[in-house]
Amino acid sequence: MTIVTGKAEARRRLQPGRSGVLRKIWEHRADYAYVLPAIAVMLIVIAYPIYYTIELSFFKTPPGLQLRDKTFIGFDNYTTILASHVFWKVTWNTLIWTLGSTLISFVLGFAAALALHRDFIGRGVLRAILIIPWVISAVAASYIWRWIYHSDFGIIGAVLVGLGLADRPPNFIDSVSTVLPSLIVVNIWREFPFAMIMMMAGLQTVPEQLLSAAKVDGASAWQRFWHVTFPHLRNVSTVTILLLAVANFNSFIIPWIMTGGGPSNASHIWITHIYELAFGRQLWGVASAYSVLLFLILMTLGYFYVRALSGNERKEGSA
Amino acid sequence: MSTIAETAPRGQTRRRMRVDGWRWAGRIFLVFMLLYTALPMIWMLITSIKSGFAAMQFPPQWWPDQPTLASYQKLLDPQNSVGQDFLRFFWNSLFVSTVTTILSVIVAVPAAYAFSRFSFPGRNFLFFAVLLRNMFPAVIFLVPLFILMRVLGLVNTHGSLILTYLTFGLPLAIWLLKGFYDNIPVQLEQAARIDGATRFQAFIMIVMPLSTPGIIATAIYSFIGAWNEYIYAYTFLSKNDQLTLPVGIQRFFSENTTDFPGLMAASFMMSVPVVVLFLVLQRYFVRALTEGAVKH
Q1: CB-CB: which of B59, B139, B270 is closest to A252?
Q2: Do the Cβ atoms of B260 and A147 come within 8 Å?
Q3: Membrane-crossing residues (chain A) (predicted)?
Q4: CB within 8 Å: B128 and A306
Q5: What are B216-263's pLDDT values in tens digits?
Q6: How many other β-carbons are positioned within 10 Å of the β-carbon of residue A271?
Q7: Terminal-to-terminal C-alpha distance of chain A
Q8: CB of B88 within 8 A of CB of B78?
């Protein structure tokens, strides 16, 4: 720090009028004081773990957390992962989980936002009720739904039996074929309110004059939505979908508490699988290699995320 | 145009019918969403007032023969060992969430202000670096953070949770607040500066009060996030008297999975504080999203 400032000082004295990066940094030193606490916390709790994860991914690690006894094995952890069929199974699950949850949550949330856009009696109450699942803890949500899906006393099973649609209650989350869709239903239950809030906020920015102009020109409700409302919401939609996708890709609590990844890996997604590899089977090195692969995927998503966000910024700047 | 004018009456009715069709579709859809959203929560409440015996019946009792608040009494009774644990978990969650919220606001406010107002070198890079935290799942930080916390001597303390929770509240907090500051005219501060205030004074006296809704939104977000967090608490804490609610409840009922009324009552009690907090302050939160995240 002192070296940097010293250099900048010296350069300023020697070459007045020249604007170097260091000098700029020095001139703005007071500004950094505002962001320093945030950056410091992020560095300790983000940068160090990222570095350490990358390092561990190249080592064979002993069980227990005696990680000083690790041995370097190059890319072995990575080849082990890519060769295992569980990896591909889990990747497929993750894809279905992420895409299914994200798209359905978005569509339901968007539709709810549109339906709630017009004022009617009780709108505020209805909106508040629809938001609640997003606020309550995922742990509570998992217990509630596990009880609803219960194979002996679950209410959905009881209704199906009562209507004569099933002989006995189905094993929603104990059966390989139904577990993933059943968990996605729970996840959507928790996530659609977020899409709804975002899209409601977005809808308020659609200029009313454009809509009424389109109406005067004889555009149908659908045409007005498709040609006026929707294009206006492109940015909000992108950001919402990306945030949902990242959140779903990273979800842990619902699959972990409801099924623990079972039965026979049918509901394991990347995150729960990594957790099990690390804390269940204590394969720290393999779990770290998984995490590094995850980084790479997320950085790709992150690139689009940042681009969508800065797209917003640019638009705002020009407006 | 002329054809529309000629057939105006018929065209009008048809258009109105079409519009009504959409409105009805919207209403039916909202009823469906209401059922989807509310029924699980209603079923949680109904189960929580059943006796353990009444819950284990098939077909289920839609409404219990003998509704009872026994599960709630048990959870809230400090004489009872279940109640002792539950209340302790509750206070632990309240403590961790409150401290996290206060620290988040203290750290996020100046950072967001700087990102909004100042143009120092590396500003954009740092801003997006902070936002990128949202991309990374908790799980991949667990092992290194566990080791780090051991080095810092924070394992089995609430400090480990508070430090960790700070970082995942911060990105959205900074983002929301920055949106707020962007919308506060710079001229207000300049006027204050002309009247002799320093930049910091202008920030405290002019900008802070105007951004109260954003600060409240940030606080709600941090609080709810910390209250509901599970995975770090599950990993960092092992002593029974330190657990927070999400983990505590799990420990509690993993031994006795048949007590569904108790589990539902606990889930309900865990949800009450955050739902009430959110419902009371939701207009701030929704407004913050409008101002910060949804720019057109």
Answers
A1: B139
A2: yes
A3: 32-54, 95-116, 128-149, 169-189, 239-258, 283-306
A4: yes
A5: 888 998 999 999 999 999 989 988 889 999 999 887 776 666 788 999
A6: 27
A7: 39
A8: no
Q: Of A45, A31, A310, A51, which Cα lies nearest the Cα of B125?
A: A310
Numbers of helices and strands, H then E, in chain B: 15, 0
Q: Where are the beta strands (DSSP E) in A3-104?
A: 59-60, 71-72
- Of residues A252, A263, A314, A245, the one with CA closest to residue A101: A245
Nearest by CB to A153, from B34, B57, B286: name it.
B57
Instruction: Say whether residue A232 is in contact with chain B using an 8 A CB cutoff.
Output: yes
Which long-range contacts link A226-234 to residues 24+ away (Cβ below 8 Å)? A229/A203, A232/A202, A232/A205, A232/A206, A232/A207, A232/B296, A233/A199, A233/A202, A233/A203, A233/A206
Paired with B73 in beta bridges are none
Compute how many other C-beta atoms are within 10 angstroms of the C-beta atom of residue B267.
27
* Closest to A214 measured CA to CA, from A235, A198, A230, A233: A230
Whole-structure pTM value:
0.86
Q: Taking a C-beta distance cutoff of 8 angstroms, is the pair B33, A130 a contact?
A: yes
Q: In whole angstroms, what is the distance from residue B247 CA to residue B201 CA?
A: 43
Q: Is B199 exposed, middle or buried (0-12, 13-18, 19+ CB in 10 A)?
A: middle
In this prediction, residue A169 carries a pLDDT of: 84
C-alpha dihedral over B215, B219, B221, B223, to 10 degrees? 180
Structure tokens at A39: 């950056």
Residue B18: pLDDT band (50, 70, 90) is low
Question: Does A99 contact B at CB distance below 8 Å?
Answer: no
Distances (CA, A) of B113 to A16, A31, A32, B217, B239: 30, 10, 11, 15, 40
For B22-61, how does the pLDDT look when each residue is reduced to its tens digit (9 = 90+)?
A: 888 889 999 999 999 999 999 999 999 998 888 888 788 8
- Contact criterion met (CB < 8 Å) for B107 and A44: no
Q: Would you give the DSSP letter of residue A17?
A: T
Task: Show which of residues 63-122 on chain B sit within 8 Å of chain A, judged by CB atoms.
Answer: 106-108, 110-111, 113-115, 118-122
A34, A129, A135: residue with CB nearest B111:
A34
Chain centroid, CA A47 distance in Å: 20
Length of chain A: 319
Distance CA B265, CA A285 (A): 41
Interchain pair B271, A250: CB under 8 A? no
Rounded distance between C-alpha atoms, residue B73 and residue B87, angstroms? 12
- Closest residue of B to A220, CA-based? B15
CA dihedral A195, A199, A200, A206 (to 10 degrees): 180
Q: Which residues of A touch B268 (CB under 8 A)?
A: 140
- To the nearest whole percent, how much of chain B has pLDDT over 90? 33
DSSP A44: I
